[in-house]
Amino acid sequence: MGMLDGIRVIDMTMNAAGPGAASMFADHGAEVIKVERPITGDDCRSFGPFLDGVSLSDAWTNRGKKSVTVNLQDSEGVGFVKKLAANADIFLESFRPGVMARLGLGYEVIREINPKIIYGSLTAFGQNGSYAKRPGYDIIAQAMSGLMAATGEPEGDPMPVGVALGDFVGAQNLYAGVMTALYHRAMTGHGQWVDISLVQGLIFMNGNLHQYAVGRKNAPRAGAHNSLLSPYGLHHGKDGQCAIVAAVGKKIWESLCDVIGHPELKEDPKFNNVAPRVANRKELTAYIEDWLKQFDNINDAVDILQAHGVPSCKVYGLEDVILDKHFREQGWIVEQSMPDNCGSDKTFFTRAPVGKYSECQPQLHKGCVLGAYNHEVMTEYGYSDEDIDRLQKKWAEKK
Asked: What is the reported pTM?
């Protein structure tokens, strides 16, 4: 039993962010009906990596859902989606503004069918304004939020984060926004439209915006360090190993000085406060790296730093993340089974749903083969086997 048992979600979203939000509802027990185009399905099904020909991106992003194929260019397809919406709690979509209205599935139409529904829209730029009709992906959000300009080496190009940060943040924002509206409905009985933007999600994360108030047009890039704190970043050890050392606060700074064998730095005017440490970062980094390079295994250095209360860690690669004992103990890294009837019985390591709860834990479910629930779902809404076969054939053939 999940905390969202009895909640029905219609997932019309595509790619990564929207489907990622819908899967969070499934983690907590909601029934999620995934509406996909015939033949090819959600674009996410074409995203690598692949195991035995199956997209692991899709297997994770669309976990726990019931896939139903529908052609939205056909009036009977639109009619079926309206039936789905009639007794749903949540309706999610990620088309550009205006597309759902042109299809006859916009918020005003769906609200007439089901006044209590929570209608969640996820777009690049929101539902209105100068940029509303622009297409946009994660990297657009990273660029226009100012995060790319703050990332990278001082003399190099702006750099994106190495994962689709905007998509993951967008997914969490859509989930949180819809859950907030669901609570409001429980209190008032009113449904509503939730409008979430990928770009706004990353603007909200950009704490550097406050620097504009003190006369900076751009936040200075500091590469693998921090433009406002030092030491607070990446430090090299032996044989290419790297560690993060983050000594914020007087007590931690003084502990670091003692550990690396340079207690005199505590009172040195070049290092005795945050601002001079930032100004003299290169020299300070050299002191720390000279100490780190004494160790064949950088984890030994990290253990010493941690024992003295200095926040630090090895910079992990994928294997480190997957094999870390604490992550396994906490259940943050888990094995997920491949979708039923996909032609593979293998498992793969992935990340677990976020959070632990004292009463009811989220569950990680399998992905779903395209159209696997066509008959089950359509039968529930009054379609005969003959109707279902006719419509699926028609929808697959219609462009």
From this structure: 0.95
Between CA 5 and CA 3 the distance in angstroms is 6
- Pinpoint the alpha helices (H) of the chain: 17-27, 56-61, 75-86, 99-103, 107-113, 138-144, 165-188, 198-205, 250-259, 274-279, 281-292, 298-307, 318-323, 325-330, 374-380, 385-397
Distance, in Å, from the CA atom of 235 to the CA atom of 295, rounded to the nearest integer, reads 13
The token pair that represents 9 in the structure block:
């979600």
Per-residue DSSP letters for 280-304? THHHHHHHHHHHHTT-SSHHHHHHH
Q: Of 42, 138, 167, 195, which residue is the catalytic one?
A: 167
List the one residue out of 87, 127, 88 whose CA is nearest residue 106. 127
200 three-class SS: helix
pLDDT in tens, the chain (399 residues): 899 999 999 999 999 999 999 999 999 999 999 999 999 999 999 999 999 999 999 999 999 999 999 999 999 999 999 999 999 999 999 999 999 999 999 999 999 999 999 999 999 999 999 999 999 999 999 999 999 999 999 999 999 999 999 999 999 999 999 999 999 999 999 999 999 999 999 999 999 999 888 888 887 888 999 988 999 999 999 999 999 999 999 999 999 999 999 999 999 999 999 999 999 999 999 999 999 999 999 999 999 999 999 999 999 999 999 999 999 999 999 999 999 999 999 999 999 999 999 999 999 999 999 999 999 999 999 999 999 999 999 999 977
Instruction: Respond yes or no: is residue 167 known to be catalytic.
Output: yes
Instruction: Spell out the domains of the chain, with CATH numbers in brackets.
Output: 8-205+354-397 (3.40.50.10540), 232-315 (3.30.1540.10)
